[in-house]
Amino acid sequence: MTTTFASLGVPDALVKALAAQGKTEPFPIQAATLGNTLDGDDVLGRGKTGSGKTLAFSIPLVAGLREIGVTTRPGRPTGLVLAPTRELATQIADTVTPLAQAMGLSVTTVFGGVKQARQEQAFRRGVDIVVACPGRLDDLMKQGIVKLDDVEITVLDEADHMADLGFLPVVTRILSATPDDGQRLLFSATLDNGVDKLVRKFLHDPVTHSVDEANSPVAKMTHHVFESANAADKHALVRELASGTGRRILFTRTKHQAKKLARKLTAEGIPAVDLHGNLSQNQRDRNLAAFGGDGARVLVATDVAARGVHVDGVELVVHVDPPAEHKAYLHRSGRTARAGEAGDVVTVCLPEQRGDLRKLLRSAKIDVKPQLVTAKSESVDKLVGPRAEWVEPAPAPAPATQSSGGRGRSGGRGRGGQNNGGGASGRARSRNQGNGNRSSGSASRGGHGGGNRSGGARRGNRQRAAV
Fold first, then answer.
1. Which SUPFAM superfamilies does the record cross-reference, listed alphabetically (predicted)?
2. How far apart are CA 114 and CA 427, in angstroms?
3. 0.90 exceeded by the pTM?
4. Where would you tag: which of 18, 252, 313, 418 has the fewest CB atoms within 10 A of its CB?
5. Average pLDDT, stretch 230-245?
6. CA-to-CA dists, residue 320 to 15, 49, 232, 339, 383, angstroms
7. Are 163 and 195 in contact (CB under 8 A)?
8. Is domain 5-210 annotated with CATH 3.40.640.10?
């Protein structure tokens, strides 16, 4: 029998909201965890990137708060989601918001890199669910702008990445400010670097669900290693890999390399945008909107994008520079082959990188043989498939008009149409076409019984009508 959201006990209003998005059947991590999370249990969920974790905690977060009957109060949210990066926080909020609206709840995001005035205003008005990065939330707590005494349900997403970024002390302070009897859901690919200590300290008798082996590759992801003889051949290869019609993400090790490569590709007729830590939030939003829309089909990113960016239909991930360690490789690669879709991952290397790359792939449990290729190789042509039209870079801005009374200053020079804000646009010309074409078990539960769960007695099963 097919498992549905309704059969797992998801409220009708949320079932309808999910159906409106074309979501009628849960992924394994959702089917495995929803029975417990909807009952109010603390849950430790382990699943690799792209497995559907965001929806797995968004549904019980919204359903639980509505069932409790929370009251919106200024500066006192009742639902809290912690995420390691602002990109991920934004993506989570995009998933939670339509579900929250279906249940009459409000959502706001809190992260650094932007002025906090708007965040202060949201708290003054009163908000039910906060999706936050630890640093800015900690600042607002110290300023007395937000208090977490009323938080009923707390979610930690990508807890292992928070540990990698050194956020655990701040996360510990934040969790300590929430009521001890609130429900807590923690999702993490691994339990190393102190994540296990968070579990022991803050989760009470958690139910553990693991639908994938930690740090395991995705079954529908095809891995390739393309070796270039020299740096010039490597650039030509990367350009060819970027030239296809579908969306692709190219990863570099440094912010400078990401910016430089995006500009170079755009100047060569392949609209590209960059994503890295030097961009303002507005620039990040603009570039992601361009990549998710029609402005650019290539995103050149540092590891900042490996966790926090989910854009549908990314068909290819290219490691322009192999990452330093295998977890970064898996998280980068996880931008494709998401939610059951297929995708390809290419690692480009030079001869001197061969040994280190072999060790990295062994740690990532990836078995793939390197191929010595050029941009014209048949295997490259087959992987890239049909090429997109050549797009003429936008012209440089016209110089500013000088005033008649003094010496004017000329306008800035454009750089190939890519200036941290969407892909180049202009006259399209035909480019030569290539010849290529391009889980574990789940637990389902019906109605769930149990004791009532209210604001005064948070822990324990929540009583819900049988489905």
1. P-loop containing nucleoside triphosphate hydrolases (SSF52540)
2. 35
3. no
4. 313
5. 96
6. 42, 21, 13, 24, 16
7. yes
8. no
- pLDDT value of residue 431: 42
Alpha helices in 128-219 (DSSP H): 134-142, 159-164, 168-176, 195-202
Question: If you ran DSSP here, which 8-state letter would residue 184 be given?
Answer: E
Contact 321, 234 (CB under 8 A): no
Cα 463 from Cα 450, distance rounded (Å): 5
**φ, ψ (nearest 5 deg) of residue 459:** -80, 155
pLDDT at 53: 87
Contact between 316 and 338 (Cβ < 8 Å): no
SS3 224: strand
Torsion of CA 292, 297, 300, 302, to 10 degrees: 30
- What tokens were used for 150? 């009323």
Q: What is the C-alpha separation between 467 and 464, in angstroms, rounded?
A: 9
Query: Is residue 176 within 8 Å of residue 136, measured between CB atoms?
Result: no
Residue 76 bridge partners (DSSP): 73
At residue 227, the pLDDT reads 97
**Superfamily per CATH, domain 221-384:** P-loop containing nucleotide triphosphate hydrolases (3.40.50.300)
